[in-house]
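Feature request disguised as a bug: please show the residue count (488) next to Putative exopolyphosphatase in the output. Example input:
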Amino acid sequence: MSKRTAIIDIGSNSARMAIFEKSSRFAFHLINETKSRVRIGEGAYNFDGVLQEPALKRAFTALEEFGHIIKGLKCNKVLCIATSALRDAPNANAFINQVHHELNINIKIIEGTKEAYYGAVGALNYLKEIHDAVTIDIGGGSTELAKIENGLIVETISLNIGTVRLKELFFDKKIPLEKIRAFINEAIEKIPERFTCNDMIGIGGTLRSLSKIIMERTNYPLKTVHGFEYEIASHTSLVNAIVSSDVLGLKNLGVRKDRFDTMREGCIIFQSILQKLSSKTMITSGAGIREGAYLCDLLRSHHHKFSSDFKLSLRSFKDRFSLMEEDNLYIKRVSHLLFDTLSPLHGIPENFKYELGVAAELHNIGTKLGFYQNHLHSFYFILNNLNYGFSHEQKILIAMLIKYHVNKLPAQEDMTLYKTLLPDMQTVQWLSFILSLAKAINSDMRRSKIAFSYQNHTLTIQAEKRLFLAREQIKQLIKPASFAIIIK
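Example output, currently without the count:
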């Protein structure tokens, strides 16, 4: 597959482009994201779907400038897909031909069910492990849903209700909400009862914007919207308020200016579908149709899904920033051995070994930015970019372990900002200490054969090498409990 691939998504409301760069066989990262609110569907819904000339000109100009970015970043491959507006337009072919001949960009119109599938593929591969859920992607012209069972996409559906469609057909004409709801309810009757699910995955601008508002209103400690989860019942009053607000009310509720003209429309669709599906938890996905289209190309021989042990962010980090992967894997093995050996003392649940292992693999990635304070560089890297394949709780714990894997244990004040996402202080201190001890044992980078035993309040380290440097570093470590360490 190409080193750099551009994915363009022409929706009813916006044209968006994402450019991905591969770092190894399956790992990649985003290097550019560009959006233009071309509103290609503007005016079309009152004219039987016919795309209007001003909107077509805006879309063409945006695609022309997307082409310059593609050329500037030396992309090897371009995939351009179009959804509801072009799908419905009688004059779509004329626009597609013009773009092909003048810009050398080939637009492929995809069906609504394919659009739903792409969104679900993006969410499944980018989020933490998902077993059973329903994805919902509220777009400008249509809304897509996909049912996930046992980690597999089993069914998709597309509904002709979208934010721009509702705006032009109803909101702009001041039609009462009751009639709008009746129109939406007629459409959502097509959703099978089997789509009912406890967990809902939100894709698309409306639901991401809603999540951002909730994060701000609740003083959520992280800024990353991808992976943000909330109990839907706790915020139904906010959704209701947005639906019934005027522009000033939207501003007071925290809605961004660029969402004033579509947020009410999106929320009334969400409100209606929620009543139908009775979902309780919302999981926000930063990945959608563009990521799904890219992954379907990348993973075409692997059923469009990463293997269960593959974590995109972890592999991408290691590809780009790891200086000594063999040493880090050694430190991971030693950390796990220490965790098991000291389990009678710390009593931490077994599942925390996973985050400990990831922290060991990534503890020094910040060195690529600079050696001094590299643990702080690593902390910020992880806090802001370890997004794909990890929950927020996992990400902040891994970041905290790395920040304090020096001669200091994290204190209560260090954890205050993130306390709602972290385990208890004793658990964090123990995991931090174990990582520090494992790193100290490999001070000479010889990856010595090692064995541990614990009895009579003493940890015995049996090593084939002298571990001279390790002895000095271990003496400086602050332990989370009273016990002795002996090296033989």
